[in-house]
């Protein structure tokens, strides 16, 4: 699964299909581990069989929007991430930041942290999709996008002959989407150098999934 690409709702669907959850409309945050079986829990021959015979799909998202979504969610709302990552980021990149609780990390500081971080050691919420899902090693049958989420999700559900009563859930009310205006604000408030230097780490996500590179030109930012 790809964090910040509707993976919570996909887990709801899978749990309902498996009988572990009554409805996709159950309110509240998703338990991302219980009632789910992961490839890593299986024996090598079981993994090989599933990779060869099962229907395999992933959902992708514009890399810079995914990073912004992770930043706003984890550093704006989740104390565990503020304490584990936020405090460290501020300690590294801000003078006299030793007293911070990690809840005031700037987007620029977050991007600088990503620039200095080894991709293979990144947290799954901001690790490139290429590294998370190995699209050149796994023959995915379908690649859906966050931008066409419901149409692509319906395609998957129809393909696996899901019961018609099970539909892809609506976005949770508490979720704050990344709008074009929000993206514009953050991109244009961030040093262009940071964005340009970070792009190589995510370039395979941009190129493999056909996303345009972020526009940070002066003309775009004046709009």
UniProtKB/TrEMBL annotation:
Pfam families assigned: Sulfotransfer_2
Cellular component terms (Gene Ontology): Golgi membrane
Bilayer topology term: Single-pass type II membrane protein
SUPFAM superfamilies: P-loop containing nucleoside triphosphate hydrolases (SSF52540)
GO molecular function: sulfotransferase activity
UniProt entry tagged with the keyword Iron: no
UniProt EC number: 2.8.2.-
InterPro entries xref list: Carb_sulfotrans_8-10 (IPR018011), P-loop_NTPase (IPR027417), Sulfotransferase (IPR005331)
Organism domain of life: Eukaryota
Subcellular location: Golgi apparatus membrane
Record bears the keyword Transmembrane: yes
Keywords: Carbohydrate metabolism, Glycoprotein, Golgi apparatus, Membrane, Signal-anchor, Transferase, Transmembrane, Transmembrane helix
GO biological process: carbohydrate biosynthetic process; dermatan sulfate proteoglycan metabolic process
Similarity section: Belongs to the sulfotransferase 2 family.
Protein name as it appears in the record: Carbohydrate sulfotransferase
Organism: Oxylabes madagascariensis (white-throated Oxylabes)
Protein encoded by which gene: Chst14
